[in-house]
Amino acid sequence: MATGRIVKRKCALCNCSKSRNDMVFVSIKQEEKEKWVKISDIRYLPKETFLIRSKLAVLHWNCLQLGELAGNRIEVRKVPYYCKTRKQVVQKTRKSPSDHQWRKDIMEIVFNNWDREEEHFEEEVEARAQVEERLYAIDLQ
Fold it and tell me: DSSP class of residue 10?
């Protein structure tokens, strides 16, 4: 039996209360394996980028909320759709798009810093090349 890291994560996800509540609404006709795979959908993303992704998600959410409070994001329409897990028609609210100025600001900062980092990188490469050249000159003598 597989006891890998991903299997353990999926088991942990299935044991949380939200997944247990969703299991009630999944069709009985499906096999247990299909139910488990359907509900325990997980994507692998590296931990190194978790903090930056979390911060960007918070910025995005805050921008949407501030747009609603300012009245910039108004409700355009409500879209009804059939929810297979709840077995009923639910409505999703569609709102006008928000101005994500923070994205443009972040990209500008990144590109400005990128140019500076490239200069330092080139200097570092040249310095390393000189050190290696000296080392090889010593070895040859």
Answer: H
Length of the chain, in residues:
141
For residues 34-55, b (16+ Cβ closer than 10 Å) or e, as one string?
ebbeebbeeeeeeeeeeeeeee
Considering Cα of 104, then 110, then 111, then 116, what sign does the dihedral take?
Answer: positive
Q: Which two tokens stand for residue 92?
A: 């999703």
Q: What is the distance between the terminal CA atoms of the chain, rounded to a whole angstrom?
A: 61
CB 90 within 8 A of CB 80: yes
Q: What does residue 125 show for φ and ψ, rounded to 5 degrees?
A: -65, -45
φ/ψ region of 87 (left if φ > 0, alpha if ψ in -120 to 50, else beta) reads left
pTM tops 0.90: no
- Which tens digit of pLDDT belongs to each residue from 68-116? 999 889 899 999 999 998 899 999 999 998 888 888 888 888 888 776 6
Mutual angle of helices 32-39 and 5-14, in 10-degree steps: 90
